[in-house]
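Protein of interest.
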Amino acid sequence: MLVKASNIPNIISPQDFAITDSNYGTTGDIYRCEKCGFMQCTRLQDVLSYYERIEDASYEEYRQIRALQQNKLLLYVRKIKKFGRLLDIGAGSGILVEQALAMGYKAEGVEPSRYLCNKAKELGLSVHLGKLPHPDVKPPYDVVTMVDVLEHVSNPMKMLEDVKEVLSDDGVGLLVTPDVGSVMAILMRSKWWHYRIAHIGYFQRSSLIGALDKVGFEPVLFARPGWYFSGDYLVERLNSYMPGTFHLPVFPILKKITIPLNLFDSLLVIFKKKTK
């Protein structure tokens, strides 16, 4: 069933898929499965080439703040798996990999963007260019992480199956994705900030549990992760919702302020392989 009609312009570019893109509410046609509730933009099936060509300088500008986010997410993992080999899928410029190394994990990542992968390599981080399966990814891994990744792929079930192939029998996975069933998603409707060209699949708790179950995973822990933003970033994002005459000034001092924020519209789940 069609739940949101497309408002994508005729021509899209790799920058429409940038991590820091703020064209909230812009998507292709989104359909909902009547059986499981999963929602997907079926128009955008082959998006890998866009991600390969992304260049996102703004992403690196806020690296220290993003490191706080990734560190907090890894603390959930440490409750269950305190050490071992870690693989981060969709690793970007290696921020989570860097934080995991600092915690004592043997961490590496895989990332399709040449630009972001090169940034990681400049910092001496082991991030492989490409996607799973990858010849340089040598399983098994004790931890596999996917932070805001699953909503970007046209075949999320295949990605979960690939994760199962590289995860050790007693390993754990960490997955974070927007929750289309959250209160904020319902209130904001078509203006929800997670409705973006780059997001082509939308889970809620029930459909995510169903997807994990079908692949052979079971949830261990659920949480509503919060995030960190600089003051100028938040004001700029707020201004994107307001007419120009009502835009708030973006003072330079705001760049130095870090603000924790939790809108409870993302799902975090730690999962493991089902026991036979």
Notes: The longest strand covers residues 167-178.
